[in-house]
Amino acid sequence: MRSLVEMYLDVEAATFTFPDVLEKILKFDLPPEHLFNVFFAFTTKYIPKETKESAQIYDLFRLLLQYHDPQISSHLDSLKYSPYCYASLWFSTILAGSVDDGVCKALWELYIEKGDPFLIFYMALVLVINARDQLLQVGLEHRESLGLRN
Q1: Are 135 and 127 in contact (CB under 8 A)?
Q2: Residue 96: CB partners within 8 Å, gap ≥ 6?
Q3: Is 65 within 8 Å of 128 (Cβ atoms)?
Q4: Which of 17, 26, 106, 120 has the most CB atoms at less than 10 Å from its CB?
Q5: Mean pLDDT of 128-145
Q6: Which parts of the sequence belong to the Rab-GAP TBC domain (predicted)?
């Protein structure tokens, strides 16, 4: 592992900021000669360069969510939950920090197969839309606790 990180830091002239990604890759039992290539591909091609709060990826994600599910997008906005609040870990780790190893491996195999760096947007949409009912309840429960009606 140390040699992998050192090689990455030499090639990228960067500081190490991807421990979740590296941890998942090491669990996949890849041959040592493939470890660096997979890690390098994920950290340079698939993980967005900017994941700080003001990054444009969150504006793009909000637009995609507005298009695919305007109600949940509006609901999250009304609760003042920006995409950064709920999706930053998804984008910055390509879901490594949010899903178990088996799911992560399946999703990453899809990433490698498709070679599409924008796939994370659609995966994030699936996560939000699949949790739609629970997310809509969040506001309802809060309103009821305040004694308000729709």
Answers
A1: no
A2: 20, 21, 23, 24, 104
A3: yes
A4: 120
A5: 80
A6: 1-115
Under the banding of pLDDT at 50, 70 and 90, the label for residue 60 is very high
Helix ranges restricted to H, the chain = 2-12, 19-27, 32-41, 56-68, 70-78, 83-93, 101-114, 119-130, 132-145
d(CA 18, CA 35): 14
Write down how long the chain is. 150
Question: 7-43: per-residue pLDDT in tens?
Answer: 655 655 444 456 778 788 888 888 878 888 888 888 8
When computed from its CA atoms, the radius of gyration of the chain, rounded to whole angstroms, is 18
Q: Measured between alpha carbons, how far is 24 from 124 in angstroms, rounded to an integer?
A: 19
